[in-house]
Amino acid sequence: MKGSWVATIRGYVWVKLIGGEPEVFLNAATREQVPLWNISFSPAGQLTFGVSVPDFFRLRPLLRGCGSRTRIISRHGLPFRMARLSRRKTFAGGMLAFVLALFLLSTFVWDVRIEGNTAIPEEKILQAAREEGVYTFQWSFRLQDAASLSQRLALRLPEAAWIGVDKRGTSISITVIDSTKPEKTALEGPRHLVAKTDAVITRIIAENGRPKVERNDRVRKGDILISGVLGDERNNKTVISKGKVMGLVWHEYRIESPLVTKSKNLTGVTQDRSYLIIGNRALQISGYGEPSYEISQTRTTVHRAQLWKRLLPFGTMKEHELEVVELEKVRTPAEAKLAGLEQARSEMLAKAGKDAVIKAEKILHEHTENGKVLLTVLFEVEQSIAIERPIG
């Protein structure tokens, strides 16, 4: 019977029999049908056993009959726990108050989240939810069911295609899906494609409109490449010119490449500091003392305390200050020249457009001055040269 839930509820004791005749006591207990368990004899010959609390009081006439007495070794079960708890009223009251407070807090709404990739401002959704009674610190039992809330929010937000409300514990998530609307396209009027810079034509593809130039033609800035006027002087119509025109353009680029470069590297030496955050104030609790770093970088990590996914106004902050050393690298004029040319090519292609290709380059001037290699380079670039111009 030891460890059964019946014994735990009724309560049971471990008892030692002192004096008398143990055999006579056991026979009497069997005859009176008093259940005993884990019966054993100690090395000193004393009988020990377990018995439930109600049956313990039935042992008195049996003990008188065999001239024995009992000593309780230990007490177990719910009655004894309740008795111990009743002697600690402050603890019992605190535990009861904690349970009541936990139950009371669980009846509030602590967090309202907006989910879904929507163009509707979050403030507008939260305002509509507030008008339907959905806001933080609201009583949960005062809220309508999720289906009713979804329908009422959909009436307040007609620009949404669907709204779902999901309540889990003390959190409410509102999922909003926008209605699909056709994109508004700007009205396009008739136009030419003209040259945005002086160039030599290398390729021309006219999708709409009439080409005005051919391959190897030299054009100046503003010249019409693809005309939006079709027909002759008497019979004509205007269209939206479309196409692609590539041409060779020459760019003169000035480069300054230093012979000595400086770079910053981490040494791996760090110093950590910890802070306690309360509101907008931070109290340092470890890592005192100024570091001896000449140059350093500081990385900060902040951890805010949360209650049901709601950020609280306190937490911890850690600062990792890393030592930095500045290294100098001396380059030869040839190395500085190659590095400068590579950087100039990258900048030139980024400026000329995604379809641009450098066809040739020529160094017009080169000399070293004040620790720098100075270059003047002429780049021949094949790039798109067409821009739109409305037909006036």
Report on this model:
The chain starts with a helix and ends with a strand. The strands form 6 sheets. The chain has a 5-stranded antiparallel β-sheet with strand order 11-9-15-21-20. It contains 9 helices and 22 strands. The chain folds into 5 domains: 5-82, Alpha-Beta Plaits; 111-178, membrane protein fhac (Ubiquitin-like (UB roll)); 191-241, no CATH class; 254-259 and 330-387, no CATH class; 261-329, no CATH class. Helix 2 (22-31) packs antiparallel against helix 4 (60-66). The chain is α+β, with helices and mostly antiparallel strands and 392 residues long.
Strand order of the largest sheet: 11-9-15-21-20
Q: Sheet bearing the most strands, described?
A: 5 strands, antiparallel
How many whole angstroms does the radius of gyration measure?
45 Å
Mean pLDDT: 85
Beta-strand share of residues: over 45%
General shape:
elongated
Specify the CATH homologous superfamily of the largest domain: Malonyl-CoA ACP transacylase, ACP-binding
CATH top level of the largest domain? Alpha Beta
CATH architecture of the largest domain: 2-Layer Sandwich
Output the CATH topology of the largest domain: Alpha-Beta Plaits
Topology:
Elements: H1 5-10, E1 12-18, H2 22-31, E2 37-41, E3 47-52, H3 53-56, H4 60-66, E4 69-76, H5 78-86, H6 89-105, E5 111-115, H7 122-131, H8 146-156, E6 160-168, E7 171-178, E8 191-195, E9 199-208, E10 210-211, E11 218-219, E12 224-227, E13 229-231, E14 236-238, E15 242-258, E16 260-278, E17 281-286, E18 296-307, E19 310-330, H9 333-352, E20 357-369, E21 372-384, E22 386-390
Helix pairs in contact: 2-4
